[in-house]
Structures are given as C-alpha cells and as structure tokens.
Input
Amino acid sequence: MERNSRLIGWLVLIVGLLCSIRGEAVDVNSAQALKDALRNATVEGNVVTLTGNVNLSNTLNITGGTMILDLNGKTITYDRTGTSETATAINVNGSEVDIVIKNGTIEVLAAKGKDGSYSWGNEKNGGTGKDAVCIQRNKGTVSLCIMKLIAKPGKGGAGYHGWGVNGNDGSPGRAYTIDPNTGTVNAMIAQGSYIVGASDNDYKSDGYPGISTTSYTTTVSLINYNVTYNANGGMPQPANATYTIESSNLSLPKVSKEGYDFVGWKYGSKTYDSDKIEKEDLPTTTERASQVNMAFEAVWKALNYKIIYNTNGGEAIPEGSYTIESETITLPTPSYAKHLFKGWYTTEDCTGDPVTTIPKGSMGEKKFYAKWVSSYDILYELNGGNNPENVPNFFTEESETITLPTPIREGYTFDGWYLKNDFSGSKETEIKMGSKGDRTYYAKWVIENYELTYH
Output
C-alpha cells in the first residue's frame, strides 16, 4: 500500500511537470486539488489559503467545486513571456463551480509579438502581442473582492527596417483583468465590493478592460457601508457605524422605548433581532461605489397590558387589554342587583377620585375596583289612585331626603301614606337621607261628600 502511494505521488509530479513543459491547463475540481496545484497553500474545509507567492506554470482550469481561494496578501504570477500563446492565469469552466477569490494579487505577463523580418515569404511587420487574461469565466460563478489584477499583454513585435523596407511595429496584446465571456463584469464582483475607478458601463462590459495596452491594473476594493439608525422614538439615539463585508460582525446598538418591546433593526426586508450581525449575514446593496449609505430602522411592538375589573360582588366582567397606541377606552358600567354603581377606583378601598377612562398613551397593567352603595326599593300601594309621573322608586343611604308624591283618585281625597296596610301609625311624608331598607307605602283615601241642593 505504501509503495502504491509513493507511485501515485510520482505520477502526479510527472504529469505536473509535463503540463508545465507543454503549458497545458491543470484541471481543478475541489479545494484539495486547488491546494495541490498551488503548492504554497493550505486547505481547511473548502478554504484554500496561500502561504507564499505562487508562480504558475500553467493555467488553472477550475472545472468543479465550491471553494474560497484566500490569497492571504500574496501574489499569483503567470509568466508566459517565453511562449507564443495567450496567457490566462485562471479559467473557470464548470457549471457547478462556485469560487470566491480574495485578498491578494494576480499578475499575468504575456508574450511579445513576433518581430518582422526581410526574407522571401516572411512578414516585414511586427506581430501583435499576446493577450493577458487574469481571470476568465466561461461557466460557473466567480466572486472577486479585495484584489489587484495586473494584466501585462505582450508588446507588439518590431517591424523590419533595412534594405529599403520599413515594416510597422505590431500592436500590443489586449489586457483582460476580468473576462466574463458571455456574462458581465458585474456578476464577477462580489456583492459589497467595487472596482476602483470603474464606470457603470464597465460593470456591464463583457471584458474589463479589454484594451490594447502594455499594462493594466484593476483594483477590487470593499465598499464601506455607512450606517445610520432611525430609532423611531427609541433611546438613546445610536451613533453611526461603518462596516464592510469582511467585518467579523456588526454590533447593533441597544435601544428602548416606553410602552414597547424592541423587535430589532430592519434593513430592506430583513429584521435583525440580535446585537450582532454575523459576517455572512451582513446586508449589502447592488451599488458599486466606495461609500454607500445604509439606514437601519428600529422596529417596535407595542406591549400588551391587562385590564382587570374587580366588581366587588357585581356581575363579573372579563379581563380586557390595551396598548400605548390604543384609543381612549371608556370603562364599562357593571351591574349588581339592589346596588347603585358609584364608579371605578384604582384603590381597593375605593378612595380617591373615580376613573372613567384609560386615556390613549397609558401604560401598565390596570386594576379597577367597583364601588357600590345598597339600593332600596320604594313601592307604592295606590289603592285605586294614580301617582304623578317620574316618582322615585328607589333610594340609597346617600340619597337626599325624598318627599313622597301626592297621588290622585277621582271622587276621593288623599289622606296620606302609611307603612301599614291598615293605615295604623303615623303618616309618612318623606324618606330622610341615611335611611335604609325597602319601603312599601299604602295610600289612604277619604271619599268625597257632595251637598245636594233642590230648587
């Protein structure tokens, strides 16, 4: 087994050397394969981290896998100045590829164009320099951030001059720091990053910069997101903050508001209910600029408070509820047989001023106590007579002195109210304040006598 492992290792090394000699691409379909191809690197999970600068001998052809290539401040150089081919450092060419490349530099140097010559059948003009491509995407997903991409196309070959011949110098090759093929440059820049100095049209381009030049550098930097907070009445008013997508986390301020429970800080359609936003959850925008303003808004939920009614012997009233935002609530009128309701009080002994409403903007649990006084019935036994309208039919200890009514009966004279049906005892004319107990009054009548006169 050990001998077989050594044999496999030698075969991998030989294949790598042959590819280097021929300049062929090395296929990479996993983080481990990427680490092996780069050599000066470590791998942990799907993250490959450079431990030193890397000089590529051939194109890295990424055909599969989800991975992060952290250049760790180092440089990958692909120098093809000694060849006659286009120089492409990294080619992403797999529909299942999802790769992030960040934190370093990729530099590509392409070959010079062929010089012109003067002989039968040869070209007197210099040839065009070879193109330099830092990263090309044919299939899959690429995200670039915190990077410097340097493309140095080959210079044009020198035109032949002599024997009466003046050849033209060739044009330099084209620099493609970011080549999205049929996609756009914008799709290859990680959300939360931007190209320094790029215009809106550059992001829509199918190759950046895609120009004939001797050298071109593209810098991909992080957007600074400048956060302001709208506390929506909460306190204290938070200070502004700044973060990038590489921030380990964003600490969200703590605020409070009377009568409310803090739900969280909202940005866009998402509300963050913790005091920190983890790196992978940091919100970004589609804007590509060095500074982008972000407004976080506090979301509050009004606290729900109980309303408890102690009817003190009256018919029970179910508990209610309200919030600080509720409109003014008028307290209900309870009922209690043979009692007169004297109001709601916030003290158990019903002292102080009675309460009739819970005003809008109130807070806290409310408990109300019903105050009652006993009510006594007044019954009138009219014995054929009729009382005037709206005579009192009840009283309490607190009632003012009540004067008993004078009923009428045709053909009779009213002779007073009595507490007994045999009209014994004294006549009753009033119910004094402070009296207690139900009362039944009996009307006594005296028949009227008429004098007859004859003519």
Summary: The radius of gyration is 49 Å. Confidence is low (pLDDT under 50) at residues 1-23. The chain has four domains: 2-221, 224-302, 305-374, 377-447. The first helix runs from residue 2 to 22.
